[in-house]
Amino acid sequence: MGKVFVFVNQKGGVGKTTSSINIGAYIAVAGKKVLLVDFDSQGNMSSGVGVSKEKPTIYELMAETATAEQAIKHTKVANLDVISASIDLAGAAMELVNQQDRNFFLKRVLDPIRDKYDYILVDCPPSLGMLTLNGLCAADEVLVPMQCEYFALEGITLLLQTIQQVQKGLNSSLKIGGIFFTMYDSRTRLAQDVVMQVKSYFKDVVFNTIIPRNIRLSEAPSHGEPICLYDPNCIGAKSYQKLAEEVINRG
To answer: Which range marks the domain in which residue 223 is found?
Structure first.
């Protein structure tokens, strides 16, 4: 049965979508079957791998108006598939509020197709709302991208509290798969201090690989390609390849 990872950080702009795309792509390059699930109404994961946001999307699967087989789209990378998202997903949280099983809609969608993939990577919206709770309830492990700045330290405390609440009441098997740093600038003292503080507190939970600031990583989504296709020789590509290897080895 494939392992489900959910990428979560309530703060936007931390490289969450970039990370889910590129970690997934490099796991696929390593020969594993990977499904990316775009669970953010902005649909950036979908466009970032060059697939359309046309129906059926993850919203239609949650509404049971389409099957997973109809919604799964292939990407330019072998072994890498995606279920896209569209703006329709923005209204899903409101629709879920009064549903009795509102925290388990994504789990219900993913469980029947888990055996078809080695890894399922879910990109959640930058919030701790209903959609993110669905992601946490469907996942085996949480991966937390973290930007090297002061407010990131404050935000991770709230995120960990949310994860603990989910572990207690909704998904007792949920684990923190790891924390990793993005947009790292070694020239700044703040970035170095944040890395040191987080590593000293979380120890082995923190991945060794740090993703640096790299313009090629920022350019790749506009071309609808993971970095492994857009510029496999840049420092960003090499860093994500190493991080993907760490994810595989921890599994």
So the answer is: 3-250
Q: What is the pLDDT of residues 63-73, one digit of tens each?
A: 899 999 999 99
Helices (H), the chain: 16-29, 44-48, 58-62, 68-71, 92-96, 105-110, 130-138, 150-169, 189-202, 215-219, 227-230, 235-250
Q: Measure CA 68 to chain center.
A: 19
Q: What is the CA radius of gyration of the chain?
A: 17
Cα 210 to Cα 71: distance, rounded to the nearest angstrom: 34
| pTM for this entry | 0.96
Could you tell me the maximum CA-CA distance found in the chain, to the nearest angstrom? 52
Domain with residue 180: its CATH number is: 3.40.50.300
Measured torsion, CA atoms of residues 48, 110, 9, 54, in degrees rounded to the nearest 10: 30
Q: Tell me whether strands 3-7 and 119-123 are parallel, antiparallel or unpaired.
A: parallel
Cα 226 to Cα 27: distance, rounded to the nearest angstrom = 12
Residue with token string 């990977």: 34
What pLDDT digit, counting tens, does each position of 139-182 carry? 999 999 998 877 777 778 889 999 999 999 999 999 999 999 99
Amino acid in the structure at residue 23: I
At 41, the amino acid letter reads S
How many domains is the chain partitioned into structurally? 1
CA triple 166-11-124, angle to 5 deg: 55
Dihedral sign for Cα atoms in the order 143, 145, 150, 155: negative
Q: Rounded to the nearest 5 degrees, what angle is found at the Cα of 123, between the Cα atoms of 206 and 166?
A: 70
